[in-house]
């Protein structure tokens, strides 16, 4: 597992050895310092993203409706840019003006492109590309930070502390390891009636003299039920000598 993490860090230009992290050609630093630096980068990137979303909201709210020559290429990119912003926005639910930004983006998608100037459409396209790239950098920094947190020394020994089974919790008193039968007696007692009412016990000669067809297909072997025989001289149990006849 640790070797896979080391290979993944190496793919990003990071060398982890002896609890020291070397980023590119820079001097080695401790693991804690490296994690702190990537955490700081992630916070800075999130602040820039938050500022960019605020600019998007301001541009769409106070749109410049002055009639200018609109480039066909800008018009073709404007609608996909708005759709991309709407798709990316749910990734940042903690934005301060999330509902306001969402309202402006949705409103722009429902508006005619003729109501937007060339300048506004160009800015929206640029903001969309910037947010996508900043989101990529943010995810990369968080990913490297997670890799560093999961990266441990090879000499670290992992011991299993929990044991389950009949020999577990031996340090506890007996009353805490077991429970009394009386605590579940009421729950189990109801099954006794179900056992006694099984078809092999109840389906027999109970409806023998009735006109209807008897239910079930249970064949009751009389010689296996000694209490149905009243005569003392008759033995209901088969013996070995019965196998060869009389």
Q: What would you note in describing this structure?
A:
The structure is a single chain. This protein is mostly helical. The protein folds into 2 domains: 2-150, no CATH class; 182-244, no CATH class. The protein has 8 helices and 3 strands. A 3-stranded antiparallel beta sheet has the order 1-2-3. The two termini are 79 Å apart.
Keywords:
flat; 246 residues; 3 strands; 4% strand; mainly alpha; 3-stranded antiparallel β-sheet; 8 helices
Structural class by helix and strand composition: mainly alpha
Determine the mean pLDDT. 77
The total count of strands amounts to: 3
Low-confidence stretches: none
What is the strand and helix layout of this fold?
Elements: H1 2-11, E1 14-17, E2 20-23, E3 29-30, H2 31-61, H3 72-88, H4 98-109, H5 118-150, H6 174-177, H7 185-196, H8 199-202
Antiparallel strand pairs: 1-2, 2-3
């Amino acid at each position: 597992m640790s070797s896979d993490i080391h290979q993944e860090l190496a793919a990003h230009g990071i060398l982890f050895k002896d609890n020291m992290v070397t980023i590119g050609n820079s001097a080695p630093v401790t693991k804690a310092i490296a994690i702190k630096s990537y955490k700081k980068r992630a916070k800075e990137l999130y602040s820039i993203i938050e500022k960019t979303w605020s600019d998007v909201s301001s541009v769409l709210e106070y749109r410049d409706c002055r009639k200018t020559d609109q480039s066909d290429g800008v018009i073709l990119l404007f609608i996909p840019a708005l759709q991309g912003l709407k798709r990316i926005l749910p990734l940042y639910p903690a934005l301060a003006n999330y509902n306001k930004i969402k309202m402006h983006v949705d409103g722009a998608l429902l508006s005619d492109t003729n109501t937007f100037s060339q300048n506004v459409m160009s800015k929206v396209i640029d903001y969309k590309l910037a947010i996508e790239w900043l989101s990529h950098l943010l995810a990369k920094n968080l990913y490297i930070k997670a890799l560093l947190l999961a990266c441990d020394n090879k000499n670290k020994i992992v011991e299993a502390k929990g044991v389950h089974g009949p020999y577990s919790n031996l340090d506890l008193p007996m009353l805490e390891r077991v429970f009394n039968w009386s605590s579940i007696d009421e729950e189990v007692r109801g099954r006794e009636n179900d056992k006694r009412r099984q078809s092999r016990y109840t389906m027999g000669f109970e409806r023998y003299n009735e006109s209807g067809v008897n239910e079930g297909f249970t064949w009751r072997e009389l010689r296996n039920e000694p209490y149905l025989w009243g005569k003392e001289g008759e033995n209901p149990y088969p013996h070995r000598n019965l196998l060869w006849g009389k």
